[in-house]
Amino acid sequence: MSSSTAVVGYKPHAVCTPLPLQSHIKAMLKLAKLLHHRGFHITFVNTEYNHKRFLKSLGPNSLDGLPDFQYKTIPDGLPVSSDTDEDAPQDITLLLDCIRNDFLAPFCNLLNKLNDNTDGFGSSPVTCLVSDGFMTSTITAAEELGIPIALFFTLAAVGFMGSKQYSVLVEKGLAPLKDESCLTNGYLDMVIDWVPGMKDIRLRDLPGCFRTTDPNDIVFNFAMEAVHRVDKASAVVVHTFDALEPDVLDALSSMPPPVYAIGPLQLLLYRLPKDPLKHMGYSLWKEETGCLEWLNDKAPNSVLYVNFGSIAVMTPQQLVEFGWGLANSKLPFLWVIRPDLVVGESAILPPEFEFETKERGVILSWCPQEQVLNHPSIGGFLTHSGWNSTIESLSSGVPMLCWPVLAEQYTNCYYTCNEWGSGLEIDSDVKRDEVEKLIRELMEGEKGKKMKIMAMEWKKLAEESTGPHGSSSKNLENLVNQVLLRKS
């Protein structure tokens, strides 16, 4: 692949490449829109599979951008059969393994076409890459082209710093786990005192990819290799804001490469005077917007929103326990249940649950989450603690009940509940009585009132950070000027 020099007078051209998962695509597309507003040509790279899902959920013309914002697709390497459900997420382990081994070649071919101007886009050659932090093979492409690359981790700073400890855990013999009993015998309660900027945490509070007994575990090794390579990038971007995580951001500032805290991204987008890409949605599932009308009839802060994200799964029994916890709370709720939420089965609740909740509960398969969280009737959020959900909830002033399932969700949960004062944790062994009790505490109790006050304070600070003179606005400008527009 040959290096290219931008033609004088042409706009800078950023190729934005997310990890092909819903939450990562959503965050990357928001960052791409912000860069487009700052004068960049954008090429947004989807896998062929996800691009088809986008078009199916959003409509055939939904991704029609402007002359300087285009989508390109590359294969993900996974086999596609005729009976593949286009609405179903792919097997993450297989997907990550294909990305690890097969992504670089088609990506370089795409860059060559863009630089040769054989794609019909009529833009300048590629001048920078903005890649998901876990798509580190793109670093090789940037090195070959001699252009800057920013790695965008769709994580909190604590999630990023925690992930950087995977190799340390291996060196110390703490991971992989010796056997399955380590998950339940108190081993995970070991205090971890060496992580810069993260005090009073336990092993269980670190991102959970290390929770495997297999030294060849694909997900663990994929994540560990990715964070190990970040110092080869020109910069790292984390989806957060300075006031939320000052200690860990300060610690990261002394480690290469430079780290830019830019978030909440949606609040930055809200501040654009004109957004020609506003019509361009983010969801791989069709959103059911009728729920917003239902919320309009509810009292302020009265409804519990429940959504376990785009990846997390549970057992049939866990679904039933959550269901009866909601039913027995006697409070109104809006519950998103994906078709694949329950492992290997359809998500089915007993008829008695439907009878008990039919007057005060709504169940749907997907929804416009940020609109829901910003609705005045929403008083709390029962969440898996994915980072998109967490930062969207904080920036909406909504306190949380946290049930982490995987990866850095454990870290997000710990900080939400213990450092940011905006959440209560639900035990991994879900019991309906505990769910009911915590829902009542969140929505009606004294702890819930204090958490609401804290969540509203984080909302205020998030809004300040994205204002004209806020830290995230300044960090975005610095990323553009110091990194993405830099000549090699």
Structure explained in plain terms:
The protein is α/β, with parallel strands linked by helices. It has 2 domains: about 15-160 and about 215-280 and about 465-485, Glycogen Phosphorylase B (Rossmann fold); about 290-445, 3-Layer(aba) Sandwich (Rossmann fold), CATH 3.40.50. The chain is about 40% helix and about 15% strand. It is built from 19 helices and 15 strands. It has helices at about 20-35, 50-60, 90-100, 105-115, 135-145, 155-165, 165-170, 220-230, 245-250, 265-270, 290-295, 315-330, 350-355, 370-375, 385-395, 410-420, 430-445, 445-465, 470-485, and strands spanning about 15, 40-45, 70-75, 130, 150-155, 190, 200, 235-240, 260, 305, 335, 360-365, 380-385, 400, 425. The strands form 3 sheets. The protein has a 7-stranded parallel beta sheet with strand order 3-2-1-4-5-8-9, with helices on both faces. It has a 6-stranded parallel beta sheet with strand order 12-11-10-13-14-15, with helices on both faces. Helix 4 (about 105-115) runs parallel beside helix 5 (about 135-145) and helix 17 (about 430-445) crosses helix 18 (about 445-465). The longest helix has 20 residues, at about 445-465. The radius of gyration is 22 Å and the shape is globular. The two termini are about 15 Å apart. Residues about 1-10 have low confidence and may be disordered.
The quaternary state of the protein chains shown equals: single chain
Unreliable runs: 2-8
> So what's the overall shape?
globular
What value does the Rg take, in angstroms? 22 Å
InterPro entries: UDP_glucos_trans, UDP_glycos_trans_CS
EC number: 2.4.1.-
GO molecular function, one term: quercetin 3-O-glucosyltransferase activity
Keywords: Glycosyltransferase, Transferase
